[in-house]
Design goal:
With 360 residues, the chain is of the alpha/beta class. Helices cover 38% and strands 16% of the residues. The chain has helices spanning 13-28, 54-62, 69-87, 103-111, 126-140, 149-161, 170-178, 223-231, 249-259, 273-278, 293-300, 331-343, and strands at 2-5, 32-37, 48-50, 94-98, 116-120, 164-167, 186-188, 209-214, 238-243, 265-267, 281-284, 305-308, 323-326. The strands form 2 sheets. A 7-stranded parallel sheet has the order 3-2-1-4-5-6-7, with helices on both faces. The chain has a 6-stranded parallel sheet with strand order 10-9-8-11-12-13, sandwiched between helices. Strand 9 (238-243), helix 9 (249-259) and strand 10 form a beta-alpha-beta unit. Helix 3 runs parallel beside helix 4 and helix 8 crosses helix 12 (331-343). The two termini are 13 Å apart.
């Protein structure tokens, strides 16, 4: 029987959707004992334990943590992990947690006699994340990574403690193997998008070429590359929608200067469904992503996707059919593919194949 913990809300955002799939598949197989989350699914009051973050919200708003995404992430993961470890008193045989958030929970579960510890690797190996974020910082002259060495070391200890590590892309799996983790410890998973992401009945017919991105707006996600490529489009009748926001006020100011008052570029925080259904192309210029939900959601809406080599999402791209794969950190390659999609729209989007998330 399995207990699952996740820092985010059930079903909210990429990580929350990932978590919801884990919960539902464990429930369907009769293995779900309980789960811990920021908010839970309606009707799950008997098996769900709510974990609030009042203290963390205070720290992020009123202490120097608000100026450091790295330390804010580390402190946030540590507080959550400690809260779960303190609250864990349920009898079960398996504890499942997410990478970076499970060390103390693992220790408590083991002390309670749990026989199996399972770790969900939402990103590639933590050392690979560090390397790719360093490349982004060097290329753009700004360090906005969420990962510091303290969190990296914590994650490394979780890798060691876990009996099984779940990966959802060959990119993630290979990064773990390259860092010395035994393939026997790894299990493959597949992710599915929410059923609301479907092609629209009709798209805008006003001659505007619409580009969209969804996720964190920062340098590690390659957004400066996307902005530069977008501004260089030969046809200026275009629009770029960034569905998401900046982690800090400093980064918001930095991106404001980068955008330079270009009114064709806009932020649209919230549900990405409408921007996806109106878009001509989705661009995911990230320097590293273990999977990346957003381009998968765009594909489900019938939108071709341009993704980088350093994202697990590339496994779902059939070049020339439902999108293109470009070298990481290359804005000219992004521009070239956007021009290609603008001039020669892709006629169809390859169907997505969903598989069970948890495989024995």
């Amino acid at each position: 029987m399995r207990v699952i913990a996740c820092r985010t809300a059930y079903g909210k955002g990429g990580l929350g959707q990932h978590f919801a799939q884990l919960v539902e598949e464990s429930r369907a197989s009769g293995e779900l004992t309980a789960y811990y989350a920021h908010t839970h699914k309606a009707g799950d009051e008997k098996i769900a334990r709510t974990v609030d973050f009042v203290r963390l919200r205070f720290l992020k708003k009123y202490t120097p943590l608000r100026f450091s995404p790295q330390w804010a992430a580390y402190v946030g993961e540590r507080i959550f992990d400690k809260r779960i470890a303190a609250a864990l008193d349920i009898k079960a045989t398996c504890f499942m947690g997410f990478v970076g958030k499970s060390l103390f929970s693992f220790e408590k579960a083991r002390a309670l006699g749990y026989g199996t510890l399972e770790l969900i690797a939402a990103n590639s190996h933590v050392r690979n994340v560090q390397r790719m974020h360093a490349i982004a910082a060097k290329q753009h002259g700004v360090k906005d990574t969420w990962l510091n060495e303290a969190l990296a070391r914590k994650t490394m200890r979780e890798y060691e403690m876990a009996d099984y590590i779940y990966t959802h892309a060959a990119y993630t799996r290979q990064s773990l193997i390259d860092e010395g983790i035994s393939p026997a410890k790894l299990r493959h998973t597949s992710l599915a998008v929410h059923p609301k992401f479907t092609p629209p009945a009709r798209k805008p017919d006003d001659g505007i070429f619409r580009v969209v991105y969804a996720g964190r707006v920062d340098a590690t996600k390659g957004i400066p590359l996307l902005i530069k490529a977008f501004k260089a489009l030969s046809n200026q009748r275009a629009e770029l929608t960034l569905v998401g926001g900046c982690a800090t006020r400093k980064m918001k100011t930095w991106f404001g200067r980068l955008i330079g008052g270009d009114k064709r570029i806009k932020f649209a925080p919230g549900d990405p469904l409408k921007p996806f259904q109106e878009a001509d192309v989705y661009v995911h210029p990230s320097y590293e992503d273990g999977f990346a939900y957003a381009p998968m959601e765009a594909l489900a809406c019938g939108v071709p996707a341009i993704v980088t080599e350093d994202t697990g999402m590339k496994e779902y791209i059939v070049p020339g059919e439902n999108g293109y794969i470009v070298p990481t950190g290359d804005w000219k390659a992004i521009l070239e593919r956007m021009e290609q999609v603008r001039k020669y729209p892709l006629a169809s989007v390859a169907p997505l194949v969903s598989e069970p998330l948890i495989k024995s």
